[in-house]
Amino acid sequence: MYEPRPEHKFTFGLWTVGNVGRDPFGDAVRERLDPVYVVHKLAELGVYGVNLHDEDLIPRGTPPAERDRIVHRFKKALEETGLKVPMVTANLFSDPAFKDGALTSPDPWVRAYALRKSLETMDLGAELGAEIYVVWPGREGAEVEATGKVRKVWGWMREALDFMAAYAEDQGYPYRFALEPKPNEPRGDIYFATVGSFLAFIQTLARPERFGLNPEFAHETMSGLNFVHAVAQVLEAGKLFHIDLNDQRMNRFDQDLRFGSENLKAAFFLVDLLEHSGYEGPRHFDAHALRTEDEEGVWAFAKGCMRTYLILKERAQAFREDPEVRDLLAAYYREDPEAVAYLGPYSRERAEALKRAEFPLEAMRKRGYDLERLDQLVVEYLLGVR
Ligand code: GCO
Ligand code: MN
Ligand code: MN
Ligand code: MN
Hints:
Elements lengths: L9 E4 H4 L17 H10 L4 E5 H4 L6 H18 L5 E3 L18 H21 L3 E4 L5 E2 L10 H19 L4 E4 L9 E2 L4 H8 L8 E3 L3 H6 L4 H10 L7 E2 L18 H12 L7 E3 L9 H27 L1 H10 L4 H4 L7 H9 L4 H6 L4 H12 L4
Parallel strand pairs: 1-2, 1-10, 2-3, 3-4, 4-6, 6-8, 9-10
Antiparallel strand pairs: 5-7
Helix pairs in contact: 2-4, 5-6, 9-10, 10-11, 11-16
The site of D-gluconic acid has 9 residues, from loops.
């Protein structure tokens, strides 16, 4: 029980389990792991796939012949293990050239360089069989407002994303683009700050059907928003193309904690939502082991993410099947046909009937919704006493 298997669709990034534990104050605490070794380790753990930035696999400045050799060796590891590469993404944040933005840099050389890097990453991903392309605009932000760049970035970003989608079409690549919002870090303020921001922006693109979201637990939590609500809205819009799972305390630096390690209740309702949503894409853990850990700690971290997800899945299922929960929910959604008749699509008759309606105001105001009992049951499922 709680054993991860490929059909659970768990994925990790090369940059997550391969994270060397650098932070703004401290040097690396772990060695870089060979991507081929990571593939074999992840396969042993029952993982479905491994995702990557271009530079996680091919260090910047690698000559073409060496690049091909690296890709060949990596593909061989994928074949040997059956691991997939569902998603790729361009690193548009590490190169010092991107210090004032990549696709929204004020310097057209930088914008063109970022665009070229994106196309090359799409080529690489196509070689590896990836069908999801993530765009994380980590450097597309500002600390200084005086430039007025805020008036231009939307146009630059639209042009770049339209270009990328047209390139995918032209090359016959199957990519669906998953846009990943974040409020800040590494920039003081990132322009595409929240799920709602990207959802609205997609509708202004030339091929909106190619674009969706890659929401991240930590990012909405940093914004003080409710991640479960954000994901529900993305699902309702048919735009959940990918998801980054991790954990985070509000009002802190980007922590990338092990899934479920901090906000257990939100993780419970997230798993409950995802597992009943029809979402069949990867469950990607965009997190990393604490800086205190050696390599053994890294694999314990990876196992922990998946095990917690599977435990929460079982707990949520049991909660939904509990007769007491069912009774409480049936009462919560009890529908009086007399009231329901007043609702629905507009008609003149309905509007007139609504104006004549007599409301049971006393009862409406006195009703108790029994949510204390319902929520206590959640807590008891989480504590494992039910
Ligand atoms: C972060 C982001 C990144 C992106 C990754 C894929 O906070 O650093 O979440 O990890 O998800 O670059 O685009
Ligand atoms: Mn993140
Ligand atoms: Mn991060
Ligand atoms: Mn992420």
